[in-house]
Design brief:
By secondary structure, the protein is of the alpha/beta class. The protein has 3 domains: 159 residues, Rossmann fold; 204 residues, 3-Layer(aba) Sandwich (Rossmann fold); 31 residues, no CATH class. Helices cover 43% and strands 16% of the residues. The protein has 16 helices and 14 strands. It has a 6-stranded parallel sheet, sandwiched between helices. β4, α6 and β5 form a beta-alpha-beta unit. The longest helix has 21 residues. The N and C termini lie far apart (83 Å).
Length: 439
């Protein structure tokens, strides 16, 4: 890792009003890397044209392993062997997390509903699960078992019959046994040794080996995020869920050690593109966190990536008031937002843009990553301004229903005819009027 003197965590001042160019650039970061999109488009075109052949070439090039088409699907004996190798302590932990995630997902499911129309008919909405969805589980530095639970579990709660999971294998052609166990526990019906842009392309377009899905969900790095945006329309998507982000709103009651630890919990994911922001009214806390970030970074395994995040993707802003700090956090629109202030629940209603909020010093973001219940698949890159985190309803289709009586249609016939006249769509009006000519 870089020497301490080479890590420069930026500190800025803002009391409201016009923001400095530095703060604006930090808050208004791009959701998708244009360079990654160029690469993704080229690979996706190859997969659309050449299918399995292009997919296998990408696996060899980027993952360093040569596979045949019939080796992409993880066989049942391999899953069974993985389960047997997982320690009991983790099995119990995963089951507890799975139980909590399931409970939260079930509680949030929308229910079919109806409303009586004015003349005796019925209006409403009904929900039905998608038939086949694809879930992406990132590879990289760690086996993200939690992501398997936070995605596949929700699809199963929604009632999806076919849940396809894609995740890259190692140079030995194997997937981490803990991740395989998590995917089985969550209910994946097919697991493929496939990551990166090639996984998104295979699920979006389909190949001879991998059947096309209807929707792709799950987080990923810069290239996966770019690929997801490019396949929109061929499949549905959840959101743009790229490299991790966290913002912390803190006053002088917060502990610098806690704030720094929480910021580093997201910086350590390893892509080097993660973002962390602290907005605080305390200049003393800002200085203490600046020092604590460097100190704690020394003991993190993925030190090179963390150093890059601290230098390029981290900002501490001393604000004049907590309201100014909240305005800054809303402008940043983070994936995760922590409220480490006096009476934190009083500030919850002022949050406008955040994927998930963690309230008070006893709710570190890591609780949301692993066990709280809501999915940790959340919008990044400022897209929390218009996207929400993953829920079980994201795996279902909503269909509106209208069942008019004769009296209902007669009641609104003048409205239909007026719109048909103004919009020049006479057949619309006729299709309503004609029903009264023979009844």
């Amino acid at each position: 890792m870089k020497a301490e003197s080479e890590i420069k965590v930026r500190v800025a001042q803002w009391s409201g009003g016009e923001k400095s160019d530095e703060i604006v650039r930090f808050c208004r970061r791009p959701a998708v890397d244009p360079a990654a999109e160029v690469v993704a488009r080229e690979i996706l075109n190859e997969i659309r044209t050449r299918g399995d052949e292009a997919v296998l070439e990408c696996i060899e090039k980027y993952d360093g392993v040569r596979l045949a088409p019939d080796q992409l699907l993880v066989p049942k004996p391999e899953i069974n062997a993985a389960r047997e190798s997982v320690d009991v302590e983790f099995i119990n932990a995963a089951r507890e997390a799975h139980k909590r995630i399931t409970s939260f997902a079930r509680a949030g499911l929308r229910k079919d509903w109806t409303l009586a129309s004015p003349r005796g008919g019925m209006l409403g909405e009904q929900y039905a699960p998608l038939e086949r969805v694809g879930v992406y589980i990132p590879g990289g530095l760690a086996p993200l078992v939690s992501t398997a639970l936070m995605t596949v579990t929700l699809a199963r709660v929604a009632g999806v019959p076919d849940v396809v999971a894609c995740t890259p294998c190692g140079p030995d052609g194997k997937i981490n046994p803990y991740l395989l166990f998590g995917l089985e526990l969550a209910g994946a019906s097919e697991i493929y040794k496939l990551g990166g842009i090639q996984a998104i392309g295979a699920m979006a377009y389909g190949t001879a080996t991998i059947k096309k899905v209807e929707k792709i969900v799950g987080p990923g790095g810069t290239f996966v995020t770019a690929a997801k945006r490019l396949v929109y329309g061929d499949v549905a998507l959840d959101m743009l869920a790229g490299p991790s982000e966290i913002a912390v709103l803190a006053d002088d009651t917060a502990f610098a050690e806690n704030v720094a630890a929480d910021m580093l919990s997201q910086a350590e994911h390893g892509t080097g593109h993660e973002k962390t922001l602290l907005a605080t009214t305390s200049s003393n806390l800002a200085t203490a966190v600046q020092l604590e970030l460097v100190k704690q970074a020394e003991s993190i395994a993925h030190r090179a990536g963390v150093a890059r995040v601290l230098n390029e993707g981290t900002m501490i802003v001393v604000v004049g008031t907590l309201d100014a700090g909240m305005e800054l956090c809303n402008d940043f629109a983070p994936e995760h937002l922590e409220l480490m202030v006096r009476e934190p629940r009083n500030w919850l209603k002022k949050v406008k843009n955040a994927g998930a909020v963690f309230v008070g010093e006893w709710t570190p973001e890591c609780a949301g990553d692993y066990v709280a219940g809501p999915s940790h698949v959340l919008p990044t890159g400022g897209t929390a301004r218009m996207f929400s985190g993953l829920t079980a309803d994201d795996f279902r289709k909503r269909t509106s229903v209208a069942a008019f009586t004769r009296a209902d249609l007669k009641d609104v016939l003048p409205v239909i005819e007026a719109f048909g006249r103004v919009e020049g769509l006479g057949a619309h009006a006729r299709s309503a009027r004609i029903r009264f000519s023979h009844s």
